[in-house]
Design a protein that fits this description.
By secondary structure, this protein is α/β, with parallel strands linked by helices. The protein folds into 2 domains: about 1-245, Rossmann fold, CATH 3.40.50.1820; about 305-395, K homology (KH) domain (GMP Synthetase, Chain A, domain 3). The chain is built from 12 helices and 17 strands. α2 (about 80-95) packs across α3 (about 110-120). It is elongated.
Length: about 400
């Protein structure tokens, strides 16, 4: 559950950099992160978008932005040194917005950039990399035989990843020979290294070099058969889930405790958005919402889902309680429920011609598994109708409403 909003700021070179801020919906973020995209990819690449949105759904606000010369950002194609400086600028812009970052995440060359920037950004508590090279010279291999032309002519057009980029001599000079091993040795933050052993663009040996150069605490997680760009949704979401779980130890942020409620009391209050509601019990808190087809965001079960869930869970508990009391070998209970509305034609008045009354119906299908007789099965089905919620729904229920400020 997340909301996306534009977030532009001024980069190191005075150029406008275009970003997107992914915020957790309905709650304050428990941490704020900056995501640095891969070489030539941009903030809107599939991997960057999926990972940042999945992190927002886990309660972490994330800024992803285009480095200079890419996507919606102004300026020349950013060198490695410029990328590091722009990460500092991004952190400053977030602090000015009341969202000081505590987590840096980088993909590919962006991973090398966050390692270099970590010691220069106040408040950073942890760093995570995905498919990062252990040295910045690795990225220069993408320039191929154009390097000589760039160094002689001052610039050249290079075709990378299906697109043309104007690469200037400054890019090579400011990218070549960055002392990553030295930076890793002095990295004073917990480090998570994620890499695929089948990565064909940045080999797994880079992950080993990064891990060995860094001090503890450090962690490595294999991305198994993922490709370098994490083009499969499942790989991107897995990476985001691991980062969120790992970061919780180092950037716990501001967890919002559910409001206190009296025993037996359920509190419902608006959560934001169109229809979303926080439902708070004495020990639990969750969202209720309407589906997208009804104008909601589908961020939680609908009111009727909750009603059916209450009846189904109470039914299953009642059957299980009876089975335990009678020593019946009941192994599993499965209940499917559907709610429907209809009009009962027989209720139409012949005298006044009034419209037929609308009736509500719940269809409940119960499946029982275990080692028991047919007579015991029939008895358990009979007991289902004695569930307290069932009796409440079929009884004479009165709802008393009061109002107050």
């Amino acid at each position: 559950m997340q909301d996306t909003e534009p977030f532009a700021f001024t980069g190191h070179g005075g150029h406008r950099l275009d970003g997107r801020l992914e915020r957790p919906r309905y709650v304050s973020p428990r941490a704020v992160a900056i995501f640095a995209h891969c070489f030539t990819c941009g903030k809107d690449s599939r991997g960057a978008t999926l990972i940042t949105r999945a992190l927002a759904a886990e309660g972490i606000a994330v800024l992803r932005f285009d480095f200079a010369g890419l996507g919606g950002s102004e300026g020349d194609f950013a060198s490695f040194a410029t990328q590091v400086a722009d990460l500092e600028a991004a952190a400053g812009a977030l602090r000015d917005a009341g969202l000081p970052p505590s987590l840096l995440i980088g993909h590919s060359l962006g991973g090398a950039a966050v390692i270099a920037a970590a010691g220069r950004i106040e408040g950073v508590r942890a760093v995570a990399t995905i498919g990062a090279p252990s040295d910045t010279d690795h990225v220069l291999h993408h320039l191929g035989d154009k390097i000589e032309e760039i160094e002689v002519e001052g610039e050249a057009t290079v075709h990378i990843g299906g697109r043309d980029f104007c690469v200037k001599k400054d890019f090579i000079e400011e990218t070549r020979g960055a002392l990553q091993a030295e930076r890793l040795a002095h990295l004073d933050h917990p480090l998570l290294v994620m890499h695929s052993p089948t990565d064909e663009l940045v080999g797994i040996e880079h992950a080993r070099a990064i891990f060995e150069a860094a001090k503890h605490p450090k962690s490595f997680v294999s991305l198994d058969d993922a490709d370098h760009l994490l083009t499969r949704d499942s790989d991107a979401r897995y990476a985001a889930g691991v980062i969120a779980a790992w970061a919780a130890r180092y950037a716990p942020g501001r967890e919002e405790a559910p409001p206190e409620t009296l025993t037996g009391t359920v509190r419902v209050e608006t959560a934001g958005g169109k229809f979303a509601q926080w439902v708070s019990t004495p020990s639990h808190r969750f969202l209720a919402d309407e589906p997208v087809s009804y104008g909601g965001e589908d961020d939680g079960p609908t009111p009727y889902d909750l009603l059916l869930g209450a009846l189904g869970s109470c039914t299953s508990m009642t059957i299980a309680m009876y089975a335990r009391h009678k020593g019946i070998d009941l192994k599993h209970v499965s209940i499917e429920l559907e709610h429907s509305r209809d009009h009962l034609e027989d209720t139409r008045s012949d005298v006044d011609g009034s419209a037929a009354k609308r009736i509500e119906a719940i269809d409940r299908h119960i499946r029982l598994e275990g080692d028991f007789t047919e007579a015991q099965r029939e008895r358990m089905i009979e007991i289902a109708d004695r569930c307290p919620v069932h009796r409440t729904l079929e009884g004479e229920l009165h709802i008393h409403t009061t109002s107050g400020k």
